[in-house]
Amino acid sequence: MRATAVRVLRQVRHDPRTVGLVVVVPAALVALMAWVYSGTPVFDRVGAPMLALFPFTVMFLVTSLTTLRERQSGTLERLLTTPLSRGALIGGYALAFGLLAAVQAAAATAVALAVGLDVEGSLPALLGVAVLVAVLGTALGLLASAFATTELQAVQFMPAFVLPQLLLCGLLRPREDLPTGLRELSSLLPLSHAVDAVTTLTAAGASAAQTLGPVAVVLGFTVAALAGGSLTLRRRTP
Q: Looking at CB atoms within 10 Å, which of 15, 90, 109, 168 has the fewest?
């Protein structure tokens, strides 16, 4: 698992575009959002959800494309002929992209604080939740890559995995104000609970203990997606 993680990180290090997409883009988008809503109270409301949404989306895209490329190049086929198990292979990818997610979340959180996001709760807890949400995007990206045969298909999966969660997570409209059916559906989506966690941590009187429920749900989805990715991992693209 460790060898797989090191190999993936070395590949990413030599790809400046991927590094920029993972580290720079989410932080830049947070700064842009603050600029758009400069002089209004809107950023205080949407800034925290952005710390969940941007890393989640970027890590989903990067992970699904990277895994698909490794399958198309035959790297996965060669690795799976060794004693390395599918679970260890998926774990190596999760570890590598999890470390990238930590850097990404730290950069985005630092920028959000620099441009005025008010965090009433624990800053380490906020950073931890941001990292966990990015890892969730990684896990779902690994799962989605198993069903794509081309890079275009991998990109096309993003609307199916991301957009419904974006619409229902509480960013555009508070979840409690949604129609009953949509409110119940939103409770089944992991990004909704991630947004609940980061929003709680920016509220007055917030404590890390209040996020345990949403964090447990996000963690459960992450583990389930990694397990699903392990079970559906194929040696090569048909």
A: 15
Q: What is the spatial distance between Cα 227 and Cα 213, in angstroms, rounded to a whole number?
A: 21
Residues 183-195 pLDDT 10s = 999 999 999 999 9
Q: How many angstroms separate the Cα of 221 from the Cα of each of 109, 189, 216?
A: 23, 9, 9
The DSSP annotation for the chain comes to: -HHHHHHHHHHHHT-HHHHIIIIIHHHHHHHHHHHHTTTSSHHHHHHHHHHHHHHHHHHHHHHHHHHHHHHHTTHHHHHTTSS--HHHHHHHHHHHHHHHHHHHHHHHHHHHHHTT----S-HHHHHHHHHHHHHHHHHHHHHHHTT-SSHHHHHHHHHHHHHHHHHHSSSSS-GGGS-HHHHHHHTTSHHHHHHHHHHHHTSTT--GGGGHHHHHHHHHHHHHHHHHHHHH--SS--
pLDDT band per the 50, 70, 90 thresholds, residue 182? very high
CA distances to 37, 77, 111, 140, 206 from 86, rounded to whole Å, are 46, 11, 37, 16, 40
pLDDT in tens, 68-108: 877 777 776 676 677 667 777 778 878 888 888 888 888 88
Amino acid letter, 190: P
Does residue 37 contact residue 121 with C-beta atoms inside 8 Å? no
